[in-house]
Amino acid sequence: MRTRTTTAAVLHRVGEDMSIEELDVAPPQGREVLLSFRYAGLCRSDLHVTDGTIVGRLPLVLGHEGSAVVDAVGPLVSRVEPGDHVVCSFIPSCGQCRWCASGRQVLCDTGAGTMRGHLPGESWPLSGRTGPVGAMCQLGTFSQLGVVHENSVVRIDASIPLDVAALAGCGVPTGWGSAVNAAAVRPGEVVVVLGAGGIGMNAVQGARAAGAREVIVVEPVEFKRDASHAFGASTAVSDAAAAREIVLRLTGGAGADKVIVATSVVTPEISAAAVDLCSKGGTVVITAMASFDEPALVLPTAMLTMLSKTIRGTMYGDCSPSRDIPALLALYQEKKLLLEELITRRYRLEQVNDGYQDLEDGALLRGLVEIA
């Protein structure tokens, strides 16, 4: 199999835009899969790489939420075959480590190297003018072609449109799972969701599907507050203080049963507000990212001890990609999950920086890059 070429969006330095350039793509080896990417979602995590909040080896093809068609496979691949439609999982799942074996694929040991750029075995399928080029989360979906490990793809029903399917690779399961799995929302509960972007809006959907009595959204951007009602929000307000008044009135002063933090970043002020909104015995789930070097949670522990409050984090909404991506897409097919409505704007690959500017400006629920 010959070397191919691809056009991709590459980040060379923190603080700069991605450059659109041509790269060489080596043929897939062993358990590697050559993908023809079709759609890629604009997730804030990529923006966190460009601003240095998430540190990765550069240069790096960004993009970790996407859908594709399998172009070719290495000789040891068993999960997919050419022509299959797949959704990319930004956490690979080997199926053999203690985490995968216990049903917690999101903690798979092979996910430890997702920002190093290379595939397992230090394989570097992409190369450019400066040498090897990495791929974010071992995917790099902002590219026409890419080589990934078979552990990073989930085969889906070919009848599902690939544009909406792309969203099931990150934002949808992360948000949905934050409510359904991590927060374990139960029927009749009062839930607050801080942030109504691509993740927060799906946390709203998950909380409502789990039977929440009230879902209160806290979001400073007006158009997102307005949009949240279609996804299941009971009330949408601009700040935590307004949400607190509503929650105390609804609960007779008790507070929210569950609070989900899905803001663009986590700060000490946001985490403190989330804990303050939470009732005795309630749970705060932190889904949003912050720098590894800056504390974003500074609280008196007596508040947790005496009031039995729980604070926990979640990656991927505690989802197991091989199980939950098809399950969520089945809900979409049954019209029990909104996906098209999440897509605010569509972009060509060469417009990816414009898309991220729109995201930073608060103009998107989810932007979608049309690759093919």
From TrEMBL:
Keywords: Metal-binding, NAD, Zinc. One of its GO terms (cellular component) is cytosol. SMART domains: PKS_ER. Gene3D superfamilies: Medium-chain alcohol dehydrogenases, catalytic domain, NAD(P)-binding Rossmann-like Domain. CDD domains: Zn_ADH_class_III (cd08279). One of its GO terms (molecular function) is zinc ion binding. InterPro entries: ADH-like_C, ADH-like_N, ADH_Zn_actinomycetes, ER, GroES-like_sf, NAD(P)-bd_dom_sf. One of its GO terms (biological process) is formaldehyde catabolic process. It holds the Pfam family ADH_N. PANTHER family: ALCOHOL DEHYDROGENASE, ALCOHOL DEHYDROGENASE CLASS-3. Belongs to the zinc-containing alcohol dehydrogenase family. This is Alcohol dehydrogenase. It comes from Prauserella muralis.
